[in-house]
Specification:
Number of strands: 8
CATH superfamily: START domain
Strand order of the largest sheet: 1-2-8-7-6-5-4-3
Radius of gyration: 19 Å
Strand content: 15-25%
Largest sheet: 8 strands, antiparallel
Oligomer: single chain
Amino acid sequence: MRHDCYLGMRSGDLDGKPYAKYWQPDMAPLREPVAQAILEGPVSSDLGFVHEQAAELLQPGYLPLETGYTRLDNGQLFVAVLTPMPRVTGAMIDWWFAWHGAEKERYKLWHPRAHVRATMEQKLSDVPGLTDRQKYVGNVSYVDEYIGCTYHHISIAFRSPGENHLDESKFKQANVTTAVCARVGFFGKPVDFARLIHLIRETEQGCEMRSRFWLGDVELRSLSKKSLVNRILGSRAVAKRAAAQAMARDLLVHCAMEMQHLAGFLPDLYRDYHAGEPVSDRNRPSDSGQHSISAAEQEPMARNSVPGDKC
C-alpha cells in the first residue's frame, strides 16, 4: 500500500483545511430498519428489480424493499438503502459529489472508518463557471475504500439519470430533486461489475436518499453490450460468481453508515461554502400542490412492506 493510503487522519492532515471541524471519527449506530435488514438476511427476489426497471423509483410512496438485499433471478445482487436526511437538499447532494473528490481528506469526512482516498479523473471540483453536475456527471472517481473487511480499488463513472432509465422530465412530479448514478468497475482494468443510483426525494424535513445497487452486472467496457463476450459475462452464472452474497450485506452496512454520517454534517458544511446565498434547492419542485412526504408517512414505510487491489 502506498504511504499516502491509510485510514483516518494523521498529524498535519487537516492543517489549514477550512472543513477540519467536520472530521468526526465517531459514527452513530445503524438505524433500526438497517439493523433489522441485517438480521433478516436476504429476502425474496420478487422484492427487487433489475436496473432496466429503475423508473420504479419515480412511483409515489415506497417500494416493497427500501432497506435490504436479495439475489435477483438474473444472478445479480440487489441492495436497497433508505436514508432520511433532515435539512439536506438535492443541491447539497450535487455539490458534495462535485466537491469531495478534490482531496482525500474531504473524502474521509464521509466515512471515517472505511474511506482511504479518492481522486477525480478530471480535476473540476474547484473550477469556477461550472455547475455542480457538470463537475461530476461524465467524470470518473478513483476510490480506495474498505467495504466490510475487504479493501477495494475501484472506478466510479458518474452518468446521467437518462442513461440509467430515469426520465428527468418526471422528477418534479415525483418530488425528486436529483439522482446520482454511476457505473462501477475495477481500477486499471476495462471491466465494470456494478451499477448504483442514489435518488434524492424531497420530504418535509429535508430529503431522503433511496440508494440502489446492482452487483454482478459484469461487462467489458471496450465491447458492445451485444457482443458475444459481454453476453457471456452478462449471464446468470457469471453474475453469481462475481458477486458473493456477503458483498451485499457489507455494502448495505457501508452505504447506511456513510450516508447517515454525511447527512449529519452536510447542511452546515454546505452553508460554510455558500455564505450569503439562500439555502434552497435549485431543483426543488415549485409549490403547485405536489405532496412532500411527511415524517409520519416516512418511517413506517421505510421497512420492507412485505413480511482487493491496493492503491
